[in-house]
Amino acid sequence: MSERTLPLVFINLGGEMLYILDQRLHALNTSDDNSEKGVWSENDRKKVMNDIVGTMFGKDFMDELLKPQQLYSHRTMKTVLTRLAHASIMRLNPASMDRLYELMVMAFKYQVLLCPRPKDLLLITYNHIDTIREFVKDTPVVGNKVDETHRKIIEIYSSLPEGEFQLLRQTLLIFFQDMHIRVSLFLKNQLQNPNGRFALSTSGPVPYGMDVPGLIRTFDRKGREVRRSEFPTGGSYTSPIRKGCFELHGDRVIRLGMNMYTVNHPEETHTSKAHSVKTDDTPNLLAKEELNLLARLMGSMKADDMPKTETGFQINLFTTDQEEEEEAEASSGAEEPLFGVINIQAMQDEQAATQLAQIAGQFAEGEEQPENLSSSKGDDLLAMMDDL
Asked: What are phi and psi of 59, to 5 degrees?
């Protein structure tokens, strides 16, 4: 396994987390609901983003993260990202963090699967960093932290051989191989099958530096071409567009890693047109429901979790039950759903949660020791985050 995988996983998953949080906080800030007035402001949103990004790209923290080391387990990675999310005045309960982590992982897994070349994983990472830089453009101190980390990544990864990038990609695929979480945004756009596996296309531009398949050339002993023949490829391939920029600023060419939750940014991939999403004014009800579920879970957090040294804020990021019923009635006659929808009660029942915690504790007692060892690998990073 590659020992250079951890920084890319952390930055890309952290970027996806910021995308989701920014989308929800923006939606609340533009809400016409009078009950939310006086509770939430644009300054609160900026503070949340600045706090998280500032912690995420802290110098000591990133120096430790960029050291060659084995990739963490999902449990340890989730713990580190949970601590990152709690670097702001927001608090997420375990249920909401679980859902948030699933959305982050599935988004990055999709990007890794569609990555044209192993080295293009850097372009995906740079797309995340470019968008994160925009989140904190009004705070030069935090923006400088992002730029400094970006330069370090360019310095470390630009000199790696192609074989190391291939090993890095294989490490990521092993990390994601057992994750098959259904995401409504992918299901709506037919990018994911009902079983949670992604539907990958066999068409589109080939990786940069590669020839379009379908041609067989035969050479003689002197290296002269003597015959050509064609064969069906089973897809519709085109030549690569151009090479993406691997510098601090520039056109990355590929769209993977960009914010797919923004209204004006269609989810684009360099695959077939059938897998691209057209810009449409029709609201994506499934994607909205996915984020609304996360919002419900975030709304069920307890005030006790808020830090005593800083005044927190309570936000209502979800629609009321009456609004959901009206929305469901309005959309029920539009079209038949492609799959069944299960209604989930997102608010936690404390008695049920206590019983589940006791059952989980019984399973934890029987776990093997190596899992405990792997979960402690991020202790140094967590200690650094506490000091920030």
From this structure: -60, -55
**Residue 341: partners with Cβ closer than 8 Å, 6 or more residues away:** none
Cβ-contact 31, 191 below 8 angstroms:
no
Run of H or E including 383: helix 379-387
- CA angle at residue 62 from 56 to 66, to 5 degrees? 135
Q: How many CA atoms are closer than 13 Å to the CA of 123, on its beta-carbon side?
A: 22
CB 29 within 8 A of CB 40: yes
Non-local CB neighbours of 317 within 8 Å, separated by 6+ positions: 24, 25, 27, 28, 295, 296, 298, 299
Mean pLDDT score, 134-157? 94
Helix (H) or strand (E) holding 291: helix 285-299
- Contact 164/4 with Cβ under 8 angstroms? yes
| DSSP for residue 192 | B
Residue 384, token pair as written in the block: 């650094």
Identity of the residue numbered 350: E
Q: How far apart are CA 130 and CA 360, in angstroms?
A: 40
User: Could you give the CA distance from residue 186 to residue 103 in angstroms, rounded to a whole number?
Assistant: 11
Residue 45 and residue 264: Cα distance in Å, rounded? 20
Per-residue pLDDT reduced to its tens digit, 207-245: 888 888 889 999 999 999 999 999 988 888 888 878 889
Confidence of residue 39 (pLDDT cuts 50, 70, 90): low
Q: How far apart are CA 350 and CA 118, in angstroms?
A: 46
* Dist CA 36 CA 315 (whole Å): 8
Beta bridge partners of 217: 228
Q: How far apart are CA 199 and CA 94, in angstroms?
A: 30
Q: List strand residue ranges (DSSP E) for the chain, in order.
A: 204-205, 215-219, 225-230, 237-238
How far apart (Å, rounded) are the C-alpha atoms in residues 60 and 152? 13
How many angstroms separate the CA atoms of 270 and 237, rounded?
Answer: 11
SS3 category, 288:
helix
pLDDT tens track for 232-278: 888 888 888 788 899 999 999 889 999 988 754 433 333 233 333 33
